[in-house]
Amino acid sequence: MTSFPTATSNSTTGGRLIYGCMGLGGSWDDAPYGAAEVDQAAAAIDAARQAGIELFDHADIYRKGKSEQVFGDVLADAPGLREQLLIQTKCGIRQAGDGLPGRYDFSAGHIMASVNGSLQRLRTDYVDVLLLHRPDPLMDLAELAGAVGRLLDEGKIRALGVSNMSAAQISQLQDRLETPIVANQLEMSLGKRAWVESAVLVNRDEDFAAGFPHGTLEHASSHGIELQAYGALAQGRYSGMPAQTAADVATADLVQALAQGWNTTAEAVVLGWLMRHPARISPVIGSSNPDRIAACADAPRIAAEMSREAWYALWTEARGAAMP
Ligand SMILES: NC(=O)c1ccc[n+]([C@@H]2O[C@H](COP(=O)([O-])OP(=O)(O)OC[C@H]3O[C@@H](n4cnc5c(N)ncnc54)[C@H](OP(=O)(O)O)[C@@H]3O)[C@@H](O)[C@H]2O)c1
Q1: How far is the CA of 295 from the centre of ligand 1 (A)?
Q2: Confidence (pTM)
Protein backbone atom coordinates (compact mmCIF):
# COMPACT_ATOMS: atom_id res chain seq x y z
CA MET A 1 0.00 0.00 0.00
CA THR A 2 1.30 3.43 -0.89
CA SER A 3 1.98 6.17 1.60
CA PHE A 4 1.50 8.97 -0.91
CA PRO A 5 -0.88 11.73 0.12
CA THR A 6 -4.11 11.42 -1.81
CA ALA A 7 -6.24 14.49 -1.60
CA THR A 8 -4.75 17.76 -2.69
CA SER A 9 -7.73 19.06 -4.55
CA ASN A 10 -6.76 21.51 -7.24
CA SER A 11 -8.67 23.48 -9.82
CA THR A 12 -6.25 23.16 -12.71
CA THR A 13 -7.07 19.65 -13.81
CA GLY A 14 -9.57 19.09 -16.55
CA GLY A 15 -10.04 17.68 -19.97
CA ARG A 16 -12.58 15.03 -20.73
CA LEU A 17 -12.55 11.38 -21.68
CA ILE A 18 -12.95 10.66 -25.39
CA TYR A 19 -13.75 7.27 -26.90
CA GLY A 20 -11.40 6.18 -29.72
CA CYS A 21 -13.18 3.99 -32.27
CA MET A 22 -10.11 2.55 -34.04
CA GLY A 23 -10.69 -0.86 -32.41
CA LEU A 24 -14.21 -1.25 -33.85
CA GLY A 25 -15.19 -2.80 -37.19
CA GLY A 26 -13.25 -6.06 -37.32
CA SER A 27 -10.08 -6.66 -39.31
CA TRP A 28 -7.77 -4.12 -40.97
CA ASP A 29 -8.20 -5.81 -44.37
CA ASP A 30 -11.08 -5.71 -46.83
CA ALA A 31 -13.00 -8.59 -45.22
CA PRO A 32 -16.52 -7.50 -44.29
CA TYR A 33 -17.57 -7.49 -40.66
CA GLY A 34 -20.59 -9.32 -39.29
CA ALA A 35 -23.20 -9.14 -36.55
CA ALA A 36 -20.59 -9.82 -33.84
CA GLU A 37 -18.74 -6.62 -34.74
CA VAL A 38 -21.97 -4.60 -34.71
CA ASP A 39 -22.76 -5.99 -31.25
CA GLN A 40 -19.22 -5.23 -30.10
CA ALA A 41 -19.52 -1.62 -31.32
CA ALA A 42 -22.93 -1.19 -29.65
CA ALA A 43 -21.55 -2.53 -26.35
CA ALA A 44 -18.47 -0.29 -26.52
CA ILE A 45 -20.52 2.82 -27.31
CA ASP A 46 -22.88 1.99 -24.46
CA ALA A 47 -19.99 1.43 -22.02
CA ALA A 48 -18.40 4.70 -23.10
CA ARG A 49 -21.62 6.63 -22.58
CA GLN A 50 -22.07 4.99 -19.16
CA ALA A 51 -18.57 6.25 -18.38
CA GLY A 52 -19.75 9.79 -19.15
CA ILE A 53 -18.16 10.04 -22.60
CA GLU A 54 -19.89 12.07 -25.30
CA LEU A 55 -17.12 12.55 -27.90
CA PHE A 56 -16.31 9.66 -30.26
CA ASP A 57 -13.09 9.75 -32.29
CA HIS A 58 -12.83 8.25 -35.78
CA ALA A 59 -10.70 8.44 -38.92
CA ASP A 60 -11.58 7.63 -42.50
CA ILE A 61 -8.80 5.01 -42.56
CA TYR A 62 -9.59 3.06 -39.37
CA ARG A 63 -10.10 -0.57 -40.37
CA LYS A 64 -10.38 0.63 -43.99
CA GLY A 65 -13.51 2.63 -43.18
CA LYS A 66 -15.16 -0.19 -41.25
CA SER A 67 -14.84 1.56 -37.87
CA GLU A 68 -17.02 4.39 -39.18
CA GLN A 69 -19.31 1.97 -40.98
CA VAL A 70 -20.05 -0.20 -37.94
CA PHE A 71 -20.59 2.96 -35.86
CA GLY A 72 -23.09 4.09 -38.51
CA ASP A 73 -24.89 0.75 -38.18
CA VAL A 74 -25.27 1.30 -34.43
CA LEU A 75 -26.56 4.84 -34.99
CA ALA A 76 -29.07 3.58 -37.55
CA ASP A 77 -30.38 1.03 -35.02
CA ALA A 78 -30.87 3.68 -32.33
CA PRO A 79 -33.01 6.62 -33.49
CA GLY A 80 -32.09 9.83 -31.65
CA LEU A 81 -28.68 8.58 -30.57
CA ARG A 82 -26.76 10.71 -33.10
CA GLU A 83 -27.92 13.96 -31.51
CA GLN A 84 -26.75 12.79 -28.08
CA LEU A 85 -23.17 12.27 -29.26
CA LEU A 86 -20.32 14.34 -30.62
CA ILE A 87 -18.52 12.71 -33.54
CA GLN A 88 -15.04 13.60 -34.67
CA THR A 89 -13.30 12.10 -37.67
CA LYS A 90 -10.01 12.64 -39.51
CA CYS A 91 -8.80 12.93 -43.07
CA GLY A 92 -5.55 13.42 -44.93
CA ILE A 93 -3.80 10.04 -44.70
CA ARG A 94 -3.89 7.77 -47.74
CA GLN A 95 -2.84 4.21 -47.14
CA ALA A 96 -0.67 2.32 -49.62
CA GLY A 97 -2.62 0.58 -52.37
CA ASP A 98 -3.06 0.23 -56.11
CA GLY A 99 0.72 0.29 -56.48
CA LEU A 100 0.95 3.71 -54.79
CA PRO A 101 2.82 4.41 -51.55
CA GLY A 102 1.22 5.44 -48.27
CA ARG A 103 1.14 9.23 -48.23
CA TYR A 104 -0.50 12.39 -46.87
CA ASP A 105 -2.96 14.34 -48.94
CA PHE A 106 -4.44 17.71 -47.99
CA SER A 107 -5.58 18.48 -51.52
CA ALA A 108 -9.11 19.89 -51.72
CA GLY A 109 -10.25 16.96 -53.85
CA HIS A 110 -9.07 14.37 -51.36
CA ILE A 111 -10.44 16.19 -48.32
CA MET A 112 -13.89 16.67 -49.84
CA ALA A 113 -14.06 13.03 -50.98
CA SER A 114 -12.85 11.80 -47.60
CA VAL A 115 -15.45 13.76 -45.62
CA ASN A 116 -18.24 12.71 -47.95
CA GLY A 117 -17.17 9.08 -47.51
CA SER A 118 -17.08 9.42 -43.72
CA LEU A 119 -20.57 10.97 -43.63
CA GLN A 120 -21.92 8.16 -45.78
CA ARG A 121 -20.36 5.42 -43.61
CA LEU A 122 -21.35 7.10 -40.34
CA ARG A 123 -24.85 7.66 -41.72
CA THR A 124 -24.96 11.23 -40.55
CA ASP A 125 -25.22 14.65 -42.22
CA TYR A 126 -22.39 16.25 -40.25
CA VAL A 127 -19.42 15.59 -38.03
CA ASP A 128 -18.90 17.82 -35.03
CA VAL A 129 -15.14 18.08 -35.58
CA LEU A 130 -12.88 17.22 -38.51
CA LEU A 131 -9.20 16.70 -37.69
CA LEU A 132 -6.44 16.99 -40.28
CA HIS A 133 -4.74 13.70 -39.43
CA ARG A 134 -1.03 14.32 -40.07
CA PRO A 135 0.65 17.23 -41.87
CA ASP A 136 1.05 16.96 -45.64
CA PRO A 137 4.34 18.72 -46.51
CA LEU A 138 2.94 19.44 -49.99
CA MET A 139 -0.18 21.19 -48.70
CA ASP A 140 -1.26 24.39 -50.38
CA LEU A 141 -2.59 26.51 -47.53
CA ALA A 142 -4.98 28.55 -49.67
CA GLU A 143 -6.42 25.40 -51.25
CA LEU A 144 -6.76 23.74 -47.84
CA ALA A 145 -8.45 26.80 -46.34
CA GLY A 146 -10.87 26.86 -49.26
CA ALA A 147 -11.83 23.21 -48.76
CA VAL A 148 -12.35 23.70 -45.02
CA GLY A 149 -14.46 26.81 -45.65
CA ARG A 150 -16.66 24.90 -48.09
CA LEU A 151 -17.19 22.02 -45.65
CA LEU A 152 -18.17 24.47 -42.90
CA ASP A 153 -20.48 26.43 -45.20
CA GLU A 154 -22.18 23.23 -46.36
CA GLY A 155 -22.69 22.18 -42.71
CA LYS A 156 -20.76 18.93 -43.21
CA ILE A 157 -18.32 19.79 -40.45
CA ARG A 158 -18.97 22.03 -37.46
CA ALA A 159 -15.39 22.67 -36.36
CA LEU A 160 -11.80 21.99 -37.43
CA GLY A 161 -8.89 20.52 -35.50
CA VAL A 162 -5.57 18.91 -36.28
CA SER A 163 -3.52 15.93 -35.21
CA ASN A 164 0.21 15.33 -34.89
CA MET A 165 1.03 18.98 -35.50
CA SER A 166 3.54 21.31 -33.83
CA ALA A 167 2.76 24.81 -32.58
CA ALA A 168 4.54 26.29 -35.61
CA GLN A 169 2.49 24.22 -38.04
CA ILE A 170 -0.74 25.15 -36.28
CA SER A 171 0.14 28.86 -36.30
CA GLN A 172 0.94 28.82 -39.99
CA LEU A 173 -2.32 27.05 -40.78
CA GLN A 174 -4.39 29.23 -38.46
CA ASP A 175 -3.12 32.36 -40.23
CA ARG A 176 -4.90 31.21 -43.39
CA LEU A 177 -8.13 29.94 -41.81
CA GLU A 178 -11.21 31.90 -40.83
CA THR A 179 -12.29 29.23 -38.36
CA PRO A 180 -10.37 28.56 -35.13
CA ILE A 181 -8.41 25.31 -34.79
CA VAL A 182 -10.15 23.73 -31.80
CA ALA A 183 -8.06 20.62 -31.05
CA ASN A 184 -4.69 18.97 -31.56
CA GLN A 185 -4.51 15.20 -31.09
CA LEU A 186 -1.08 13.85 -30.18
CA GLU A 187 0.32 10.67 -28.67
CA MET A 188 0.76 11.43 -24.97
CA SER A 189 0.75 9.04 -22.02
CA LEU A 190 2.73 7.81 -19.06
CA GLY A 191 4.46 5.52 -21.57
CA LYS A 192 4.99 8.16 -24.33
CA ARG A 193 6.35 11.07 -22.31
CA ALA A 194 8.16 13.33 -24.79
CA TRP A 195 5.33 15.87 -24.35
CA VAL A 196 6.26 16.37 -20.68
CA GLU A 197 9.97 15.58 -20.90
CA SER A 198 10.33 18.49 -23.32
CA ALA A 199 9.28 20.81 -20.47
CA VAL A 200 12.26 19.91 -18.26
CA LEU A 201 15.00 19.04 -20.76
CA VAL A 202 15.82 22.51 -22.05
CA ASN A 203 19.63 22.74 -21.94
CA ARG A 204 20.03 19.00 -21.37
CA ASP A 205 21.55 16.31 -23.60
CA GLU A 206 19.07 13.52 -22.77
CA ASP A 207 16.95 12.48 -25.72
CA PHE A 208 13.77 11.58 -23.80
CA ALA A 209 11.99 14.47 -25.51
CA ALA A 210 12.80 13.51 -29.10
CA GLY A 211 9.90 13.96 -31.47
CA PHE A 212 7.96 16.54 -29.49
CA PRO A 213 8.66 20.14 -30.50
CA HIS A 214 9.02 22.58 -27.63
CA GLY A 215 6.10 24.87 -27.09
CA THR A 216 3.36 22.70 -28.60
CA LEU A 217 1.57 22.21 -25.28
CA GLU A 218 2.05 25.79 -24.19
CA HIS A 219 0.77 27.12 -27.51
CA ALA A 220 -2.37 24.97 -27.22
CA SER A 221 -3.04 26.14 -23.68
CA SER A 222 -2.60 29.80 -24.58
CA HIS A 223 -4.86 29.54 -27.62
CA GLY A 224 -7.66 27.45 -26.12
CA ILE A 225 -6.85 24.45 -28.31
CA GLU A 226 -8.02 21.18 -26.73
CA LEU A 227 -5.17 18.71 -26.33
CA GLN A 228 -6.35 15.18 -27.06
CA ALA A 229 -4.06 12.31 -26.08
CA TYR A 230 -4.12 9.17 -28.17
CA GLY A 231 -2.48 6.00 -26.86
CA ALA A 232 -3.44 7.37 -23.45
CA LEU A 233 -3.63 3.92 -21.84
CA ALA A 234 -0.15 3.17 -23.24
CA GLN A 235 -1.83 0.09 -24.75
CA GLY A 236 -2.19 -1.38 -21.25
CA ARG A 237 1.54 -1.31 -20.41
CA TYR A 238 0.88 -0.31 -16.78
CA SER A 239 -2.56 -1.84 -16.36
CA GLY A 240 -2.34 -5.52 -17.15
CA MET A 241 -0.31 -6.10 -20.30
CA PRO A 242 3.02 -7.95 -19.79
CA ALA A 243 5.75 -5.43 -18.89
CA GLN A 244 8.73 -5.03 -21.24
CA THR A 245 11.35 -3.31 -19.07
CA ALA A 246 12.35 -2.97 -15.42
CA ALA A 247 10.94 0.57 -15.42
CA ASP A 248 7.63 -0.75 -16.78
CA VAL A 249 7.46 -3.37 -14.01
CA ALA A 250 8.18 -0.79 -11.31
CA THR A 251 5.66 1.64 -12.79
CA ALA A 252 2.94 -0.99 -13.11
CA ASP A 253 3.56 -1.94 -9.45
CA LEU A 254 3.27 1.69 -8.35
CA VAL A 255 0.14 2.20 -10.45
CA GLN A 256 -1.39 -0.87 -8.82
CA ALA A 257 -0.45 0.26 -5.29
CA LEU A 258 -1.90 3.72 -5.89
CA ALA A 259 -5.06 2.25 -7.38
CA GLN A 260 -5.56 0.10 -4.29
CA GLY A 261 -4.89 3.00 -1.95
CA TRP A 262 -7.29 5.26 -3.82
CA ASN A 263 -9.94 2.58 -4.26
CA THR A 264 -9.83 2.83 -8.02
CA THR A 265 -8.52 1.04 -11.12
CA ALA A 266 -5.08 0.98 -12.69
CA GLU A 267 -6.59 2.55 -15.83
CA ALA A 268 -7.94 5.50 -13.82
CA VAL A 269 -4.48 6.09 -12.31
CA VAL A 270 -2.76 6.00 -15.72
CA LEU A 271 -5.30 8.37 -17.27
CA GLY A 272 -5.58 10.50 -14.13
CA TRP A 273 -1.84 11.12 -14.29
CA LEU A 274 -2.28 12.58 -17.77
CA MET A 275 -5.30 14.65 -16.79
CA ARG A 276 -3.55 16.06 -13.69
CA HIS A 277 -1.38 18.19 -16.00
CA PRO A 278 -2.69 21.78 -16.12
CA ALA A 279 -2.82 21.77 -19.94
CA ARG A 280 -6.22 20.06 -19.56
CA ILE A 281 -5.44 16.95 -21.58
CA SER A 282 -8.34 14.83 -22.85
CA PRO A 283 -7.41 11.14 -23.11
CA VAL A 284 -8.68 9.15 -26.10
CA ILE A 285 -9.43 5.62 -24.88
CA GLY A 286 -8.92 2.90 -27.49
CA SER A 287 -10.21 -0.20 -25.69
CA SER A 288 -13.14 -2.07 -27.18
CA ASN A 289 -13.59 -4.09 -23.98
CA PRO A 290 -16.61 -2.72 -22.02
CA ASP A 291 -15.05 -3.61 -18.65
CA ARG A 292 -11.85 -1.75 -19.52
CA ILE A 293 -13.84 1.23 -20.76
CA ALA A 294 -15.74 1.26 -17.45
CA ALA A 295 -12.41 1.08 -15.61
CA CYS A 296 -11.46 4.44 -17.14
CA ALA A 297 -14.47 6.34 -15.78
CA ASP A 298 -12.85 7.32 -12.48
CA ALA A 299 -9.91 9.11 -14.15
CA PRO A 300 -11.24 12.68 -13.70
CA ARG A 301 -11.67 12.12 -9.95
CA ILE A 302 -8.18 10.68 -9.65
CA ALA A 303 -6.76 13.63 -11.61
CA ALA A 304 -8.48 16.08 -9.29
CA GLU A 305 -7.14 14.30 -6.21
CA MET A 306 -3.64 13.28 -7.33
CA SER A 307 -0.96 14.94 -5.24
CA ARG A 308 2.09 16.59 -6.75
CA GLU A 309 4.23 13.92 -5.03
CA ALA A 310 2.30 11.00 -6.51
CA TRP A 311 2.37 12.61 -9.96
CA TYR A 312 6.16 13.02 -9.87
CA ALA A 313 6.64 9.53 -8.42
CA LEU A 314 4.76 7.99 -11.35
CA TRP A 315 6.72 10.03 -13.89
CA THR A 316 10.08 9.22 -12.28
CA GLU A 317 9.30 5.51 -12.13
CA ALA A 318 8.19 5.46 -15.78
CA ARG A 319 11.29 7.31 -17.06
CA GLY A 320 13.52 4.98 -15.02
CA ALA A 321 15.72 7.89 -13.96
CA ALA A 322 15.61 10.80 -11.54
CA MET A 323 14.48 14.23 -12.70
CA PRO A 324 17.31 16.23 -14.32
N1 LIG B 1 -4.35 10.83 -34.27
C2 LIG B 1 -3.64 9.75 -34.49
O3 LIG B 1 -2.67 9.75 -35.26
C4 LIG B 1 -4.03 8.48 -33.77
C5 LIG B 1 -3.19 7.35 -33.81
C6 LIG B 1 -3.58 6.21 -33.12
C7 LIG B 1 -4.79 6.19 -32.42
N8 LIG B 1 -5.60 7.30 -32.41
C9 LIG B 1 -6.88 7.32 -31.65
O10 LIG B 1 -6.61 7.05 -30.30
C11 LIG B 1 -7.37 5.93 -29.83
C12 LIG B 1 -6.57 5.17 -28.80
O13 LIG B 1 -5.35 4.72 -29.34
P14 LIG B 1 -4.74 3.31 -28.99
O15 LIG B 1 -5.80 2.27 -29.15
O16 LIG B 1 -3.50 3.16 -29.76
O17 LIG B 1 -4.34 3.47 -27.48
P18 LIG B 1 -4.76 2.92 -26.04
O19 LIG B 1 -6.11 3.38 -25.66
O20 LIG B 1 -3.62 3.27 -25.19
O21 LIG B 1 -4.75 1.33 -26.17
C22 LIG B 1 -5.88 0.57 -26.49
C23 LIG B 1 -5.43 -0.80 -26.94
O24 LIG B 1 -4.69 -1.38 -25.88
C25 LIG B 1 -5.32 -2.59 -25.47
N26 LIG B 1 -5.25 -2.66 -24.00
C27 LIG B 1 -5.33 -1.65 -23.13
N28 LIG B 1 -5.20 -2.13 -21.87
C29 LIG B 1 -5.05 -3.46 -21.98
C30 LIG B 1 -4.86 -4.49 -21.03
N31 LIG B 1 -4.80 -4.26 -19.73
N32 LIG B 1 -4.73 -5.75 -21.48
C33 LIG B 1 -4.81 -6.01 -22.79
N34 LIG B 1 -4.99 -5.06 -23.75
C35 LIG B 1 -5.10 -3.78 -23.34
C36 LIG B 1 -6.76 -2.49 -25.95
O37 LIG B 1 -7.28 -3.79 -26.13
P38 LIG B 1 -8.85 -4.07 -25.77
O39 LIG B 1 -9.63 -3.46 -26.90
O40 LIG B 1 -8.92 -5.55 -25.73
O41 LIG B 1 -9.13 -3.43 -24.46
C42 LIG B 1 -6.59 -1.72 -27.25
O43 LIG B 1 -6.19 -2.59 -28.29
C44 LIG B 1 -7.72 5.16 -31.10
O45 LIG B 1 -8.90 4.40 -30.96
C46 LIG B 1 -7.90 6.29 -32.09
O47 LIG B 1 -9.20 6.81 -31.96
C48 LIG B 1 -5.22 8.44 -33.05
Answers
A1: 14
A2: 0.95
